[in-house]
Specification:
CATH class of the largest domain: Alpha Beta
Number of helices: 13
Number of domains: 2
Structural class: alpha/beta
Order of helices and strands: HEHEHEEHEHHEHEHEHEHEHEHH
Strand content: 5-15%
Number of strands: 11
Strand order of the largest sheet: 9-8-7-10-11
Radius of gyration: 19 Å
Bound molecules: N-acetyl-L-norvaline, phosphoric acid mono(formamide)ester
Oligomer: single chain
Shape: globular
CATH architecture of the largest domain: 3-Layer(aba) Sandwich
Largest sheet: 5 strands, parallel
CATH topology of the largest domain: Rossmann fold
Distance between the termini: 11 Å
């Protein structure tokens, strides 16, 4: 497997299963990689909240011997302008054309978390923020959840599926579930494109109007009935997302879409997955998330090995 120039989406990798295998070997032979990236530095930039991504990526860097700085732009930084050619006489004090190369001059790798605005579909789906760091920082960029994808989450999801699957080609169901706030499409987009790139069998089930962009879901079976979709499933991956077509809107908050015991009983004794954070008894019932088939904590634990594999390949010599 050749080195990663950036880690922006599944398209950054030649073979997602190879990267997942590397993460698994890092988990099972941690001593072999210890301090292998000593002397290198990483800056993690957060425009939005995070628990898992923030801590697991720092832990991964520590395991490799890297030094890490964390920068919460929203709270501590100058407000950044991303549009070109604007008269900067508003509340944005600094342009990305200066900020990104400055950060690039201090660090070897830069991680960025910048969620979708959910207001401007065009700039969100052009990945304006992530691509500006790629363009102007001069350093490898690690996506910590961008407007349209969350590849570290998807890599950990693939690793966790590989650890738990009992058949060669498991049936995986990505199910929409209700949520009171408007959430991005990044996690489901990304999960879909990784699972399909790994050649697993994917069904996406959602209420009408919640169809994701085909750019990410081509090859998946699309369903509008949880009853039908859950039949024979090996993995249920729950997530809420806002509408892509009626961009950023909540079209349904029907509690009937929550994942409960009765629905799980229709599956082939499926494992339950969610990226976390999750709202209990809104997305999933206590009974399901607390059951022996729930592997949400394994997914979160594996985040450190997913991040370690990505950092290792981003910092590999040519
Ligand atoms: C975010 C989302 O849905 O993209 C982050 C998930 C990892 N979730 C929330 O904001 C609740
Ligand atoms: N799953 C995930 O990315 O969690 P955080 O938002 O807490 O980082």
């Amino acid at each position: 497997m050749s080195k990663l120039n950036h880690f922006l989406s599944v398209k950054s990798t030649e073979n997602p299963l190879e990267l997942a295998d590397l993460a698994l070997s890092m988990k099972n032979n941690s001593g072999n990689f210890k301090d292998s990236r000593k002397g290198l530095s990483l800056c993690l930039i957060f425009f939005n909240s995070s628990l898992r991504t923030r801590l697991s990526t720092q832990k991964a860097a520590f395991n490799l011997g890297m030094d890490v700085a964390v920068f919460n732009v929203g709270e501590d930084g100058w407000q950044l302008e991303f549009d070109e050619g604007v008269v900067m006489n508003g509340n944005k004090a600094e342009h990305i054309k200066e900020a990104a190369p400055v950060i690039g001059s201090y660090f070897d790798i830069i991680g960025i978390r910048a969620f979708a605005s959910l207001e401007n579909k065009i700039s969100d789906y052009q990945e304006q923020v992530l691509n500006a760091f790629v363009k102007y920082s001069g350093k490898p960029i690690l996506n910590l959840e961008s407007a349209t994808t969350h590849p570290l989450q998807s890599l950990t999801d693939v690793v966790t599926i590989l650890e738990h699957k009992k058949v060669a080609r498991p049936k995986i169901v990505l199910s929409w579930a209700p949520h009171p706030r408007t959430l991005p499409q990044a996690v489901p987009n990304s999960f879909s494109e990784w699972v399909l790139a790994c050649k697993f069998d994917l069904t996406i089930v959602q209420p009408k109007g919640y169809e994701l962009s085909e750019e990410f879901t081509k090859g998946a079976t699309i369903s509008y009935s949880q009853e039908e979709a859950f039949e024979g499933a090996d993995f249920i991956y729950a997530k809420n997302w806002s509408s892509y077509t009626d961009y950023g809107k909540i079209l349904s908050s029907d509690p009937k879409w929550m994942i409960d015991r009765e629905k799980m009983d229709r599956t082939a004794n499926a494992f339950f997955m969610h990226c976390l954070p999750v709202r209990r008894n809104v997305i999933v019932s206590d009974e399901v998330i607390d059951s022996a088939k729930s592997i949400v904590l394994k997914q979160a634990e594996n985040r450190q090995y997913a991040a370690q594999a990505a950092l290792f390949k981003l910092s590999e010599m040519e």
